[in-house]
């Protein structure tokens, strides 16, 4: 009975706007291999971390996952891509902040463009973009841990919920 009352109070508080339920943020990321090298970008702006990740970002409502990915990759790298099949679903969170993100990684191909140090991400987050060979990946910090397996492997992967890192 007490649990039912607590649940009812929780619903009432949300309905009155005091507590907003949070849903996971959905993002898309590109696994782009060129000459057997994986394209990576800095994960955080302002030099706060040496962490690398695949290019991509948040999904806008009303736009398909591939359309979002094409936009994000262009903004971050200046490259035009085609989007292939999904190969990895990764989840991460920061429980202390109520943050939870689900990333869907797709195999992608470069259609046009080249990396240019003069390129500027309009959001100012991505300031470094670079290709890494699989052996070079061992010398850098990156997330998710399953990234090399997803990029150079052949199976669809699911990387369960992990804590966010900087």
Show the helix and strand layout.
Elements (H helix, E strand, L loop, with lengths): L1 H14 L9 E10 L2 E6 L8 E3 L2 E3 L6 H13 L2 E15 L4 E14 L16 E5 H4 L3 E2 L4 H6 L4 E7 L3
Parallel strand pairs: 1-6, 3-8, 5-9
Antiparallel strand pairs: 1-2, 1-4, 2-3, 2-7, 5-6
Tell me what you see in this structure.
It is a single chain. The protein is an alpha/beta fold and 166 residues long. It has one domain (22-163): Nucleoside Triphosphate Pyrophosphohydrolase. The chain contains 4 helices and 9 strands. The protein has helices spanning 2-15, 65-77, 134-137, 147-152; strands spanning 25-34, 37-42, 51-53, 56-58, 80-94, 99-112, 129-133, 141-142, 157-163. A hairpin with a 4-residue loop joins strand 5 (80-94) and strand 6. Mean pLDDT is 89; it is low at 1-16.
Q: Concise description?
A:
This protein has helices at residues 2-15, 65-77, 134-137, 147-152; strands at residues 25-34, 37-42, 51-53, 56-58, 80-94, 99-112, 129-133, 141-142, 157-163. With 166 residues, the protein is of the alpha/beta class. The chain has one domain (22-163): Nucleoside Triphosphate Pyrophosphohydrolase, CATH 3.90.79.10.
């Amino acid at each position: 009975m007490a649990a039912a009352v607590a649940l009812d109070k929780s619903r009432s508080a949300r309905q009155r706007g005091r507590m907003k339920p949070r849903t996971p943020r959905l993002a898309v990321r590109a696994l782009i291999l060129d000459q057997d090298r994986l394209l990576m970008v800095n994960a955080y702006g302002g030099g706060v971390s040496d962490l690398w990740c695949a290019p991509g970002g948040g999904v806008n409502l009303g736009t398909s996952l591939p359309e979002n990915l094409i936009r994000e990759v262009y903004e971050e790298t200046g490259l035009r891509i085609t989007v292939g099949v999904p190969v990895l679903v990764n989840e991460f969170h920061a429980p202390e902040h109520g943050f939870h993100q689900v990333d869907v990684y797709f195999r992608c191909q470069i259609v046009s463009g080249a990396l240019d140090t003069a390129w500027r991400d309009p959001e100012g987050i991505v300031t470094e973009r670079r290709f890494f060979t699989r052996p070079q990946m061992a010398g850098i910090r990156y997330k998710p841990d399953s990234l090399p397996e997803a990029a150079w492997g052949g199976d669809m992967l699911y990387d369960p919920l992990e804590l966010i890192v900087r």
